[in-house]
Amino acid sequence: MTRNPLLPEQAVIRKTKHQTYDTITFTLSFLNGRQAEYRFQPGQYNMVSVFGVGEAAVSISSEPGRSDSFDHTVRIVGNVTRALRRLEEGDVVGVRGPYGTGWPMEKAIGKDVLVVAGGMGLAPLRPAIAHILENRTEYGKLEILYGDWASQSRCTLLTTVDMVPEDERWDGHVGVVTTLYKHMRTKPNNSIVLMCGPQIMMRFGIIGLTRGGFSPEQIYVSLERRMKCGVGICGHCQVGPVHVCKDGPVFQYESLRHLPVLAL
Ligand SMILES: Cc1cc2nc3c(=O)[nH]c(=O)nc-3n(C[C@H](O)[C@H](O)[C@H](O)COP(=O)(O)OP(=O)(O)OC[C@H]3O[C@@H](n4cnc5c(N)ncnc54)[C@H](O)[C@@H]3O)c2cc1C
Ligand code: FES
After folding, report:
1. Most exposed among 32, 118, 139, 197, judged by the fewest C-beta atoms under 10 Å?
2. Distance separating alpha carbons of residues 21 and 194, to the nearest angstrom
3. What does DSSP assign to residue 34?
4. Pocket lining: 78 vs ligand 1, CB cutoff 6 Å
C-alpha cells in the first residue's frame, strides 16, 4: 500500500515519563498494524500531531532495535508540546514519518565516535548511542560530551553544566559543553563526530573541533528549523538550495560550510 506522506496515522500513548520539570518522554505504538514494520534510522524524526491543535517535528529518541513501540522526548515550549503535556496513557496522537536523514552509522563503523550534545540535542543522538552500544564490536571508542547520561562502562562520558544554581550541589565541570574539549580523549585520526544542540553551541563546537584538527568531513550535525510538511514541498525549512526536512536534519558539516547556517 502506498502511504500518503502528509496523512498522520494514529498512535497510542503507552507510557509517559517525566524526565525534568519541562521534558517528557512519550512511548508510542501505531494503532493500525503498522508498528510491526515501522523502522527508522538513528537521527530521523516524526511529525507528531495533537488533533485540533497542530503538528511539531520531534526526533525519535528510542533504540532502533525496539519493534513494539518508539519514544519521543519532548520539551514543553509552545502550542503542540503544551497540548502533548496534557495527554495521558491511552490517549491517541497523529504521527507521520520517519522523515529525514540519519546519522552516518555505516561510515562510522571501525572508527572512534565522539558525540557532542547540548540540551535537547541528546534526543536525536540517543538512538545512535544505543545502536553503537548494541553493536559495540563494530565501532572504536565512544566518547560522549554532555550531562545527564546514565553511567555506562562501555564508553567515556564527560559532563558539564552551564552554571550551578545557588541551592544545588555539583562537583563536576562547569561551563558550556565545549569546555570539555580539553579533557576529551578522542583524536581526529580515524574518528567521526556526531553533534546536536542549540545553534550557538554547534557553532562554537565546530570551531573548537576544527582548531583541534578535526576536518569538516568528519563532523556531522543535526539542524533544527521550523517545519510544516516535512517532505520538501512547502519550503518552510529551506536554507539556500537545501530543505532541512528531507536533505537533513543530519548533514555532513562540509556540505553546509557555504550556506547561511552555522556560519563561522
Ligand atoms: C528535525 C527536528 C527534530 C526535533 N526534535 C525535537 C525533539 O526531539 N524534542 C523536542 O522537544 N523538540 C524537537 N524539535 C523542536 C520542535 O519541533 C519545536 O520546538 C516545535 O516548535 C515545538 O512545537 P510547539 O507547537 O510546541 O511550539 P511552538 O508554538 O511552535 O513554539 C516553539 C518556540 O518557537 C517560538 N515560535 C513560535 N512561533 C514562531 C515563529 N513563527 N517564528 C519563530 N519562533 C516562533 C515560540 O515562542 C517558542 O519558543 C525538533 C525540531 C526539528 C526540526
Ligand atoms: S518543511 Fe516543508 S519543505 Fe521542509
Report:
1. 32
2. 27
3. G
4. yes
